[in-house]
Amino acid sequence: MIITDEEIICLKEFKYKDNDKILRVLSRNKGNIQLIAKGARKAKSKLLNISQVLCYSKCDLTNNRDMYILSNGELIKNFYNIRTNLDSFFMSSYVLELVDYISRQNELISNLFEMTLKFYTVIDELSKYDDVTKDINILVAMFEIKLASMLGYRPVLRNCIYCGVSIKSNAYIDTENGGLVCNECLKKYRNKNLFLLNNESIVMMEKLIMTKFQNYSELGNVDKVLLNYIRQYLHYHIGKNNFKSLDMFKKI
User: Fold this and answer.
1) pLDDT in tens, 21-64
2) Region at 54 (left for phi over 0; alpha for psi -120 to 50; beta for the rest)
3) Is residue 27 within 8 Å of 3, Cβ to Cβ?
4) How far apart are CA 144 and CA 102, in angstroms?
5) pTM of the predicted model, to two decimals?
């Protein structure tokens, strides 16, 4: 079976034989799939530009048992600016790792491809400038909490998850069960995985979920404690907290 004009984002590449590559990609319609790019490591290969990590392309694929053969394609965007900015590169690589892990654990996830593409488009534009670490951290946190929500772990941020009472003040969030806990229920569930958030952080977390990537500047400053908690929240629910790109970023 031949699939034409399939949009893909390359997540990982592996050397194969003398001149070939095996690619793991996120495709718009198939989810996480593996491709063989024959001759892609040759300097004059027509597949050279479209078989690199982070490239966004439109390709023709041929189904071959348990993977696909990349027979032809057109590069749409290589996100060049991300590659020239160290902070952008490492944090974008972390998101690639996230997407690869999540998409391999699940069948086709609706809207994951589109969300990933929008994220990298905004990060690439931002990466033209210096001193963008703060902005990048906000955008990554937006991706993390949106991803958690997409996977079914959207936190309840207006009511107590146990009794339903409205909460408009500082409150503990139950990481395991994904929502705020009122003071009365807190007495019963002290042994849960709880984290204290002030009201400003609770409001901001909801804004991070609802705001489009291209409008991130409207959010203003986001507390580092909240940024760290969002990562902790996502990692808890996906059952993975070790990512090579994050470890490397911390070392530099």
Assistant:
1) 999 999 999 999 999 999 889 988 999 999 999 999 999 999 87
2) left
3) no
4) 12
5) 0.94
